């Protein structure tokens, strides 16, 4: 290690040992500011060295307010490190929750410095990915299968349902033909998700149902009636309900128990 890395590591190691000998039972370690002040070094330089030491496995980073760096892990700090990846355990993290998670990560204050562009976007996007351009959501049908396998292998194969899955599209009136919305995109969306869900069921996953969002075009808190989701078209002026192509298609699927 370079000299500055030796100095910072040795100080952190000594402080962790001191805290342990003093009987401290919760998180043991130091903040960047504490180390920088004690060693009369610039905080940004200390931060860079600490991150390098984390990368090579010499020390651990416990995220929080403020961030703690440690050499010795207590039971509490081990649990804190496990929780750092909690976003990765959320069902829907790559679907409807993706933008919410990005916003949550971006809003988390970084006591080590200003927010950088990396706080606001993911560094990788799947080439050729499918997108619902009206909602800004990626369409990844296999996610239904991945969720099912995850629940089977890691959560005791509990009974569960897909509570909502849908395709919101703006200005659906442009797809009207002979008085009916020909929403082939919604048929494709549902069919491709059900194919993966059927595969999961064949492999023993305990999924009991699939709920579409939504039965009829509904009002949204975020965009009112801008995007339409339903099997049934709702005319806001006349309140007339007209079944879309997808509505007739899902009726046949239900009657035939397949497609």
UniProtKB/TrEMBL annotation:
One GO location term (cellular component): cytosol
Alphabetical list of Gene3D superfamilies matching this protein: Glycosidases
Enzyme kind, highest EC tier: hydrolase
GO BP, sorted A to Z: carbohydrate catabolic process
Pfam family, one: Glyco_hydro_1
E.C. number: 3.2.1.86
Molecular function (Gene Ontology), one example: 6-phospho-beta-glucosidase activity
InterPro entries named among the record's database cross-references: GH, Glyco_hydro_1, WH_DNA-bd_sf
Keywords: Glycosidase, Hydrolase
Record SUPFAM superfamilies: (Trans)glycosidases, Winged helix' DNA-binding domain
Keyword field contains Lipid biosynthesis: no
Superkingdom as given in the UniProt entry: Bacteria
Family: Belongs to the glycosyl hydrolase 1 family.
Protein name stated in the entry: 6-phospho-beta-glucosidase GmuD
Organism: Clostridium magnum DSM 2767
Taxonomic lineage of the native organism: Bacteria, Bacillati, Bacillota, Clostridia, Eubacteriales
Name of the gene: gmuD
């Amino acid at each position: 290690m370079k000299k500055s890395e030796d100095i910072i590591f040795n100080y952190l190691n000594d402080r962790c040992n001191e805290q342990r000998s003093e009987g401290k039972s919760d998180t043991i370690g130091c903040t960047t500011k504490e180390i920088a002040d004690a060693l009369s070094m610039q905080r940004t330089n200390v931060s860079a060295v600490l991150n390098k030491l984390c990368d090579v496995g010499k020390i651990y980073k416990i995220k929080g307010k403020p961030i703690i760096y440690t050499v010795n892990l207590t039971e509490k700090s081990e649990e804190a490190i496990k929780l750092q990846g909690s976003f990765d355990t959320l069902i829907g993290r790559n679907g409807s929750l993706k933008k919410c998670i990005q916003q949550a990560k971006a809003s988390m204050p970084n006591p080590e410095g200003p927010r950088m562009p990396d706080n606001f976007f993911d560094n990788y996007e799947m080439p050729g990915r499918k997108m619902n351009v009206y909602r800004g959501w990626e369409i990844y049908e296999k996610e239904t299968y991945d969720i099912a396998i995850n629940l089977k292998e890691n959560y005791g194969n509990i009974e569960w349902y897909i509570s909502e899955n849908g395709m919101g599209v703006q200005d659906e009136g442009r797809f009207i033909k002979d008085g009916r919305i020909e929403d082939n995109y919604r048929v494709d969306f549902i069919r491709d998700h059900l194919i993966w869900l059927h595969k999961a069921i064949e492999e023993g996953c305990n999924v009991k149902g699939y709920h579409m969002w939504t039965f009829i075009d509904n009002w949204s808190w975020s965009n009112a009636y801008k995007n339409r989701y339903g099997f049934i078209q709702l005319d806001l002026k006349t309140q007339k309900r007209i079944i879309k192509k997808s509505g007739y298609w899902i009726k046949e699927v239900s009657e035939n128990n397949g497609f």
